[in-house]
Design brief:
This protein has a single domain, classed as Rossmann fold, CATH 3.40.50.2300. Helices cover 36% and strands 15% of the residues. The chain contains six helices and five strands, in the order αβαβαβαβαβα.
Length: 155
């Protein structure tokens, strides 16, 4: 992963404005309640690293290692604010997972950030067609991840 990004071992410590940046909602004010993020990835190293970064920002993180587990989590909860979904997963890939999430009335407008390790031409478009709100290529740059989350939590 990149120097400023998430390492496959222990995540790097965020410094400066990334630590102090407020989470915001559509009213342009700070979030009074906890932001809840669902991280869907079959690689536990990525789950650990992303979770560590988001928890340091004061977010509550729920994890799923499969698309089916992500759907079950969303069925059981009514309070997920945003999801980060890996594209390359066994059985039900991220494209299928995002399409199924879009089919859930409660989460039809949930911001979905797609992650992919194979940044190939057309990936972004394919992710957006599958229902992603935005797209980030791996290796994940933590500044980009946090900025992308804030943009979509801002609405």
């Amino acid at each position: 992963m990149t120097e400023a990004g998430i390492a496959h071992g222990s995540p790097r410590r965020l410094t400066g404005s990334a630590q102090r940046a407020p989470r915001v909602t559509g009213d342009d004010g700070p979030v009074d309640e906890l932001t809840r993020v669902l991280v869907v990835d079959d690689d536990i190293r990525n789950v650990f690293a992303i979770t560590a970064v988001l928890e340091r920002q004061g977010m509550e993180v729920f994890t799923a290692e499969t698309g089916a587990e992500a759907l079950a989590t969303l069925e059981a909860r009514t309070d997920i604010d945003i999801a980060v979904v890996d594209v390359m997963m066994p059985e039900m890939d991220g494209y299928q997972t995002m399409q199924r999430i879009r089919g859930m009335d409660r989460y039809a407008r949930l911001p979905l950030i797609a992650l992919t390790a194979k940044a190939m031409r057309g990936d972004r478009e394919r992710c957006l067609e599958a229902g992603a709100t935005d797209y980030i290529a791996k290796p994940v740059d933590t500044s980009q991840l946090l900025s992308t989350l804030r943009v979509h939590l801002y609405r």
